[in-house]
Each structure stands twice: as C-alpha cells, then as structure tokens.
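Researcher: Let's continue the batch. This sequence belongs to 5'-nucleotidase SurE, and it's 261 residues. Same format as the previous ones, please.
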Amino acid sequence: MRILITNDDGINAPGLEVLHAIATELAGPQGEVWTVAPAFEQSGVAHCISYTHPTMIAELGPRRYAAEGSPADCVMAGLHDVLLDAAPDLVLSGVNRGNNSAENAAYSGTIGGAMEAALQGIPAIALSQYYGPGNVTLDNPFEAAAGHGVAVIRRILDHGNWAEGAYRLFYNVNFPALPASEVKGTRAVAQGLREGVRFGVEPHMSPSGRRFIWVRGGGQDRPSGADTDATVNLDGYISVTPMCADLTAHGALAGLKAAMA
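Model: Same format as before. Here are the structure tokens for 5'-nucleotidase SurE:
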C-alpha cells in the first residue's frame, strides 16, 4: 500500500511521528509512506487553499516534504507533484494535537486535508487525539491513537463506504483522552455540537500600544448530545464519523423547493 500523510500541526509535530508509525504498519514491508506536511503550524485553516499565491515545497529527506501552505495544499502537492508518477492508495491526516469533534470539525485543517483527498478521489481518514486530564501527563499523550490507530483504520478500510460518487466520503476519527489500555471501544456516531460552546476573540494591547485579538475556543469537556462524537469521546470511546464536502442541507431542500416553485 502507498500512503500519503499530512497534518495541520506542522512537519515537526509529534502527532505526525505517531501517524507515520501507524501508516508504516498499515503499508507493510512492501509499501511506501510519503509525507507532505505544512512547514509551519496551520491549525484552524479548515479547507483553505493557497489559490492566490505560490507555495514553496522542499524535500527534507527520503519521502519527506514540507510545503509552505495548508493541509489541503499539501495533499494537492503530494498528488500532483511529489507522487505524480502513481497516486497513493490512502491519505491520512493527523494525528492532531487536540480533538476535532463537534464544532471543531468545521475549523479543522486536519479534516481539510482529508476532505481535499476525498475531492481528488482518494480514500482519506482524519485522526485527532483528545487532550485532557487522562492523558496530558502521560509520557506519550498520543498513546490512545498510537495503540488503536492501526486497528481502527483497518476496520474503516474494510467496512467503510468507499464508493465513488459526486462527493466521496471520508472519515473523521477522534481518540479519547485516556491511556490506550483504558479505551472502551469504538463507536460510529454523528458529528455533534457542544451546547453553548463558540469560538470567540480576546483583545490585547501590545507594548507599542497597538490592539490585537487572539482567537480562543470554548470548553472542550462538554458533551455534544446523545450518539455524537464529543459525547462518546468523553465517555472513553473512539469516535468514527463519515463526512463529505457536500454542504447541502438535504432535509430542508424539499420544503424550500415547494416554496420557491
């Protein structure tokens, strides 16, 4: 198997090392793992692409590249430049430092990388590691992802919907903030919404008297409703959520058509 990996935390992020180990085991001794990741952190860029300016790409070592762009840029660089001779069989994005459950999914560069791969017709999975009291003091906070990532991905590859269509599905995986031995299992669930949690800004004055704002998120320890991602993560389960780039609210379409007729 030929696997392309990327992330949004940057080429030197520890989660990318965890993902490389996962991908290496999945690819097998005859497989290949290629890395094209952002040269600098790109958290929160979602599915942004560098449409109006060029992206520099540099080879850092065998099958290892850094691009001055977003995760979606990195996937395009991987498919249409680095791996131009033969497309990968799978794109993996992550392992993100922090969860991409619930509303976080809308902002996530990790998910943006997987979404771009799906739009390009390549099977793709995004992986993220919840941070919390159960894992922040571990020698390896990514222990749950490292211990269960291969098995979860294999199950998704075997049982996921990989049919080609107008918008191909990709999968969003979130690991709970626990040691690997304490993970309770895996649940296929919908994306949720943490009640009352919103991104916002916090203003600060610089020493020179200029006003700046920092974007800040809400509490990540709140559930997101029954049978949804953040809730099962907080309960100790790995969440798997099928997603696609089609933003149509299909449930509202029939009524709107009738009103517009």
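Researcher: Any comment?
Model: The chain has one domain: 2-192+223-260.
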